[in-house]
Batch of 4 targets.
Target 1
Amino acid sequence: MDQKERIIEQAMQMFVTQGIKSVRMDDIAQQLGVSKRTLYELFGDKEGLLYLAMERFFESKRVERAEACVGARNVLEAMFMVLGCVADESEVIQRLLGNLRMFYPAVHSKLMREGAAQSRLDLQRMLETGIAEGLFTEAFNLDLAITVLYYTASAITMRKDLILPDGMTEREAFVQIISNFFRGISTAKGLELIDDYLKRYEPGKPENNRR
């Protein structure tokens, strides 16, 4: 890992743990034992470094999600796992994006555009795999399905003013909404796999999660 990569990695950890606004270039320089001049020569300004650090953070989350579903039995189960990870990470993601939007709107806009494009590509690949494996029908508009999934995930993970039924967690609501969406585009084979997944991993039933 060269000096620039090391700085990006350390800055990412500092922004995530200490807060985007509170971490100054002075703090990063002191933590890494480099001069502020070096930071400005490498990154231009704090926004330049912040963008690269947050890009690294969100890419690390994509890698973690991919690793989480390596053992999935099929693409439907993989999609449940990936989208579940998104829901579980919502608190941290919401905090970071909220701070970016408030204090560094240009960085926020760029990351959101790039993140949305990548997320849509990931969803497209998984839906196309599901069609190829006979789990999803071909009688739905792929672009619309991608949009619905993306904005459903965003609504659950980014908005904290959603009113849920008493006793229902955000994770439970998310899984129920997503599973109902999948039922609408699934074949008979896909429906069986959805039911199997929910029996084994349905939130709120710890005994199922241990199987």
Target 2
Amino acid sequence: MFALTPRLTLRPGWLEDAPALARAIAHEAVVSRLARVPWPYAEEDAAAFLSLQPYPREPRFLIVERSGDYRLVGGVGLHRGERGGVELGYWLTPGAWGRGYATEAGRAVLDIARHALALTRVDSHHHADNPASGRVLRKLGFVESGQSRRYALARDAEVECVDYTLDLAADPPRAMPIAA
């Protein structure tokens, strides 16, 4: 599965992306904000992630900037959450922060969730010390649903999180551009 936004290409990751993925994500400022990523992060970690079995109902995408050199700038996707629901997750390399890429990529993935996967609800969360991620989630229409403590692999500790939910069934449907 692929998705195009005005500025980005969302595509599956391939094993040959391991060096670029490792360069993009291997910043402590990125990894410390994620739940399932080890620190330090090496090319072998990227290769292991890219080798994971894909699940059609849990699409994972690399975010590629289409301007210039088609640089890998992040990742976004849906996955089965710790509590059984479907969760939206995303990250960006520091050089891509503040450009609206997370919101743009998130909208594309939520359109896939709604139109291609027929999901009616998506959850998400962010570490309480990462309020920028909360702003992205609110722009995407998520509503705060509580607080929790979750294990963060890079920190090797439980961290305070803010939980969100998005009722896709309550959202007015938008036309999704598709190609046949």
Target 3
Amino acid sequence: MGQALGDVLGLAAAVAVSPLPIIAMILVLATPRGRLNGVLFAVGWIIGLSVLGGAVLAIVGPEGSSSTSSQPATWVGGLKLALGGLLVLFGLRLWRRRPSDASQARLPKWMATIDRLTPSKVFGLAVTLAALNAKNAPLTIAAGASIASAGLPVGQQIASLAIFVLIGSLGLLAPLGVFLIGGDRARTTLGGWRDRAARHNVAVMAVLFFVIGLKLLGDGISILTS
């Protein structure tokens, strides 16, 4: 289990510091029903990560994760190689498109509609950002593959996935906690977080994707050539 956790901690950290979901949470907290919407957004995010990671574990099954008791199956190496290449390409693409002036960074247009979303749509948005976002899903899939390839019993696989989900949710839980404790007084603090995250969103994600992608490429090559 220790090896599995070592493989997924970096992936979980990359999910946790992804700026766009953090900005979305802060915008959700600024809505008239900020307390309810914030909790629903956090729950939806946790469920989205859990469902996607759990789906990977369920598809693999206890018998498909490794070719021997100590060596991951070939498909695991191929998957990590593909995901690593995808993340490296994402990183390079984002880096090339980053604004020369960080103060000119623009947020996605859908964020302007957050204050008009119903609680159920806030929940759905969080699930979508966690499980279906093209920038986040590869990290979760890679984490599920790493856990599956460790040859762990089902209980330890679930525990490893739970730790990944918890760490991957810290970025959202931090502003939620600040808001629940500080209430309206926390809006200034959260506004500063939102502005900084918006300015550095592209650069942060570019570096994260490139570094994590290189690690996955190395893992995949190691598995395929061993």
Target 4
Amino acid sequence: MTHALIVIDVQNDFCPGGALAVTDGDAIVDGINALMGQVDAVVLTQDWHPAGHSSFASSHADKVPFEVTQMPYGAQVLWPDHCVQGSNGAAFHPRLDQTRADMIIRKGYNPAIDSYSAFFENDQKTPTGLEGYLRTRGITKLTMVGLALDFCVNFSAVDAAKLGFDVEVRLDLCRAIDLDGSLSAAREAMTTAGVTLR
């Protein structure tokens, strides 16, 4: 079985001091680096938003961060401006070992659609290309780690399981935002989809 590590959005803006910091987001970096040597392939994902992205609260009059609004593709949490293309906030955490990456998937670059999952934009139809890459490499088993557990890791893991991959999420190498019960909902969604949580 060919095994890939999918490292989700370990970027400065999601780490302490960043625009959308996840508590202890940087505490997982060394453990992720150590895991890279135990797999056949490493894929890094990178949130990569143009300025003025539609998921930013600042792009909507009279809206504030963490408010939910309706987009053509469904409900969307409005976030503080984060991971703007080319900014320091969008860069990978400086301790993350990028030299081990076989591939970097950038997501969220369409100004009209947010993209939590490493596989599909939030319309659930537009692919990122990751599935095709993994299939052509003959990869069937995925271990997912990164930020944030209840959003991008959750969506990526559920999509991967729906696509037929054998998926596990290393909870010790993830951190969560936990917005209005999002963590318990994410754990339930991943378990229901057949994702192994360990």
